[in-house]
Write a structure and sequence with these properties.
The chain has about 240 residues and is of the alpha/beta class. The protein has a single domain, classed as Rossmann fold (3-Layer(aba) Sandwich), CATH 3.40.50.150. It has eight helices and eight strands. Strands 1-4-3-2-5-6-8-7 form an eight-stranded mixed β-sheet. Helix 3 links the parallel strand 2 and strand 3. The longest helix has 14 residues.
C-alpha cells in the first residue's frame, strides 16, 4: 500500500483560520464524493486536465484539492506527474489520503491555505483548481493569484475551473414542494447563481484576478453549462522574461 502522508504547513496563527468546506458544511463531507459524482463533476475535472495539457514528469499543484478528485484525474491522465494537493480541510485531506492509498498512486497532500502554495519560487509547471476559487475569501483571492505566479516557472500555466461568466436573472419564487421537486435542477442552479460566494466569480472576475496579478494572456478557454450553473475554464501563463 502506498504511504501517503499529510504535511501541515499552517502557522500557529493559521490553525484557527476560518475556511469554507468543499461541501459547504463540515457535516456534509461524508456525502461529498457521492454528491459530486452524481452531479457529473468528474467530467469537469477531466476537461480541466485535458485543457491544462500536463506532460509526464511535470510538477503540479492542485489548490483546494478537497478529497483529491482533480488530483486523481491528473494522475489518471499523466501517471508520472508530480502532484501536490493543498487544502485547509484536514478531514477532506485524510479522505484523499485513504483514496490515494487504495489507488496506489503517489500524491503529496498539504494542509494549508491557497495564498501560500507549497512550492519554491518558479518550480511548478502547472497550478490547477476546480470549484475552489469561489471558496476563497475576498482578502485572499489576490494573494492566491500572486502566489501562483510566484510558484510557477516562466511559461508555467494556471488552469481554473469554477462558476463564472454572466450573472443569471432573478431567482424563481417557490410554489411549494411539488413545484420544487419538478424544478429542482433549475432551483439549485438559481441558488448557486445568486450565492454571494459565487458572485465573486461573476462576469470576468477570474480573468481580471489573474491579469491584475501579472499573468499573461488570461482568458476563458472553454465553458460548460453544468446542472449547478455555468462553469468557466480560465487559463493564464506566467510571462517568460526575455533578455535584451
Amino acid at each position: 500500500m502506498t504511504d501517503i502522508r499529510i504535511l501541515d504547513q499552517r502557522t500557529p496563527e493559521e490553525r484557527d483560520r476560518a475556511f469554507l468546506p468543499g461541501a459547504g458544511k463540515t457535516w456534509l463531507l461524508p456525502c461529498y464524493d457521492v454528491m459530486t459524482r452524481v452531479a457529473g463533476v468528474r467530467a469537469l475535472h477531466e476537461r480541466a486536465v485535458k485543457l491544462a495539457g500536463i506532460e509526464p514528469g511535470q510538477a503540479v499543484a492542485d489548490v483546494g484539492c478537497g478529497t483529491g478528485n482533480l488530483s486523481f484525474a491528473v494522475l489518471a491522465a499523466t501517471p508520472t506527474a508530480r502532484v501536490t494537493g493543498l487544502d485547509p480541510d484536514g478531514d477532506a485531506l485524510r479522505r484523499a489520503a485513504r483514496k490515494a492509498r487504495r489507488r496506489g498512486v503517489a500524491l503529496t497532500l498539504v494542509q494549508g491555505y491557497a495564498d501560500r502554495i507549497p512550492a519554491e519560487d518558479a518550480t511548478l509547471d502547472h497550478v490547477v483548481s476546480s470549484l475552489a476559487l469561489h471558496h476563497i475569501d475576498d482578502d485572499s483571492r489576490g494573494a492566491f493569484a500572486l502566489d501562483a505566479l510566484r510558484a510557477l516557472r516562466p511559461g508555467g500555466r494556471v488552469t481554473i475551473a469554477d462558476f463564472g461568466g454572466q450573472a443569471e436573472g432573478h431567482a424563481p419564487h417557490s410554489h411549494g414542494w411539488a413545484h420544487a421537486l419538478r424544478h429542482l435542477p433549475s432551483l439549485l442552479r438559481s441558488r448557486v447563481a445568486h450565492s454571494p460566494v459565487v458572485a465573486r466569480n461573476h462576469d470576468d472576475a477570474i480573468v481580471t484576478l489573474l491579469t491584475e496579478a501579472g499573468f499573461a494572456d488570461a482568458r476563458e478557454v472553454a465553458h460548460a453549462d453544468h446542472a449547478f450553473g455555468r462553469i468557466s475554464f480560465v487559463q493564464a501563463t506566467r510571462p517568460v522574461l526575455r533578455q535584451e
